[in-house]
Amino acid sequence: MLSELQQYNKVYHLFEPDEKLVLAVSGGVDSMVLTDLMQKAGAHFVVAHCNFHLRGEESDGDEQFVRDYARKNDLQCFVNHFDTEKYAAEKGVSIEMAARDLRYAWFEELRLQLGYDKIVLAHHADDQIETFFINLLRGAGLHGLKGMKPKNGVLIRPLLWASREQIRKYAVENQIVWREDHTNAETVYLRNKVRNQLMPLMDEISADARNSIGKSIGFLASENELYRQLLNERLSQLVSVDGSVQSVEKSVFQCDNGFQLLFEWLRQYGFNTDQCRFIFDGLENGLGKHFYSSSHQVTIEREVLQLTEISEKSDEIYTIEAGQEDFDLPFRMHCAYFEKWEGFEVEKKSSVGTFDLDKIDFPLTLRQWQQGDRFHPFGMKGSKLLSDFFVNQKYTNNQKENQWLLVSANGDILWVVGQRIDDRYKVQKDTKSVFECCLM
């Protein structure tokens, strides 16, 4: 296997003899074989091990095993401990995804701390196939089905060509000791179901199934590269950039592949399929609506979709005095005060908040939402927790964290800014004076 690894490295330019590497070692057969091969290849590397504390004493046993191996082989070893279940609960993700996020973040942190060049991962051909089916079952498109790359930035996978069978055979022949994770035989996780149930069925259907699927993944990867190239050229023609603001004319998306084009533009800024569907469906009647990813905001304007970067949640509180029209806020907003005239109609836009001036206690404050906030949504009887309102409006976590509120001096929430006013302060037939706020 050493010659195959060296040839694979030569073809994909994974690592050079003088480069310094961080090698991820779990203690399983894949990473132990990779460690052995990298030593024989003369690579300069340190060992990095994650203890996710998911299997009690077994997790601690894995850690000690890796530490002992590193010491016996004069390898520098770094270990990090994670409260994976807590992280998964806080982020609302699966245990698998939590472990993935934690380890990749730490590997990169360690690499930068050491001043090293690459992170080496022990993914192999069977991992590639399993990932393909996992993404297929989750409804992935071409981008999700193309598989892992041998080299992706600083991440390299020198064993991506090798099957699980080849790796185990090498380990036995070379008397390499490893730790067996008993959870690999369980079917709790989706990957294990694919590995232990689906793949044996594929082997039964065709003896060459794994090889054929691997070829298909390779074709998809090549086609994805071409697709991305053409897509980027197309987007560069459609997206107008003014400082930190990007805009695309809404008419661009009025074609057979309009949704796909919108999704490909916004996915790189953290928007998922469901969010993009809401945006696409709102192109015609959603004027003024805002949608949020973890880093960006999309606003539906009259003629364009506008993409802007959002700032982190602020603890600042802004004050608006009676009669004040211009003020420093975290966004552009204009306030107006006037007598209601005959035939006056409230502008029905989420970007405009219109209130009965005589019911409002000044000064007003503008702040971001807090747990326990409650208001009377326009058109409804009774009050509602803002957290429940957010759920009904399908807010993302980031959208909640960045939601501003206009609050009366008596503590009542007048306006969930850009979304809904409080029904108690709406303009009615007997309203004499109007207070109006417009997002600019």
Characterize the structure shown:
The protein is α+β, with helices and mostly antiparallel strands and 440 residues long. The protein folds into three domains: 2-130 and 147-206, Rossmann fold; 240-309, no CATH class; 318-439, Phenylalanyl-tRNA Synthetase, Chain B, domain 3 (3-Layer(bba) Sandwich), CATH 3.50.40. 39% of the residues lie in helices and 20% in strands. The protein has 14 helices and 21 strands. The strands form five sheets. The protein has a six-stranded mixed β-sheet, sandwiched between helices. A five-stranded antiparallel β-sheet has the order 7-8-11-10-9. A hairpin with a 3-residue loop joins strand 9 (290-292) and strand 10 (296-300). Helix 4 (84-91) packs across helix 5 (95-114) and helix 11 (258-267) packs across helix 12. The protein starts with a helix and ends with a strand. The mean pLDDT is 88.
Largest sheet: 6 strands, mixed
**Total helical segments:** 14
Silhouette: elongated
Number of domains: 3
The helix content, as a percent range, equals 25-40%
Uncertain stretches:
none
Strand content: 15-25%
Please, what is the oligomeric state? single chain
